[in-house]
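Shipment paperwork, digital attachment
Item: protein structure file
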Amino acid sequence: MSAMPDTITVTYKVPKRRHPVLAFIVQQPLGAAGLGIIILMILGAIFAPWVAPYDPLAVDYANLLAPPSLEHLLGTDNFGRDVLSRIIHGSQTALAVGFLSSLIGSSIGAMIGVASAYFGGRTDMIIQRLMDIILAFPIIVLALAVVSVLGKNVILGIDWNLIIAIGLPMVPKVARVVRSSALAIREMPYIDAARTAGFSHPRIILRHIVPNVTAPYLIMLTAFVGQAILLEASLSFLGLGVTEPTPAWGLMLSGSAIDFYQQAPWMIVFPGVAISLAVFAFNLFGDSLRDWLDPKIKL
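Attachment content:
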């Protein structure tokens, strides 16, 4: 009889981890589709002077209200301006206002939410009551009031008062979401250990709480970009946002477009499609990012 081996060697192959971007595409195909649309919008905004077939401000009286054709793929408006060129250049306004207002509103809301959860007590009660007051106003009404009071403040081609008006309604929503996450983190043993060690409040907040609320912050930041684009279009439609002759999607839906919607429906249809597609893409990406970053859903 042959002797049995003293040891048994077991070999196994460790599965190769996917790149995070590839993993997101595989696990969240709808979110990946939304991200693809967002990337195309960003590239179109960056390279608008080279991508757009015409100058968005150029007036061509020989082609007033021209229907879609090979010369003008999406037609022209009542001044003979190319609709496609204005939509491409309008993405610059939409993305700039959308990203900046969402960044400012979400960042302020995150700071308020973390401070409210960490200090608690009377501080938390006062902050939350202020957030309730802001939430009591409809978003569009609050934005209209802020724009009407502040007026216009254009710096570097951007109306910062408009960005503040759009970002303000986002503050209480982000503050509540971040606060709920920070409340759970505040009760963790390592937070008590940091307090016992004598660390200052700013150090505990910045080193131990803020990094752990980054995921909900990023999710809210992404989701609110679409809402900011829609709100900017609404304010421009009402005449309180971007003004002529600046290309803006909401502005293309108002004014003379209303007078010529029967004769030239492309003046309203294509800007409306651009707004809907942008909001849809950011909502898809935001929802998918939430599902991808949430460990409970992953399980």
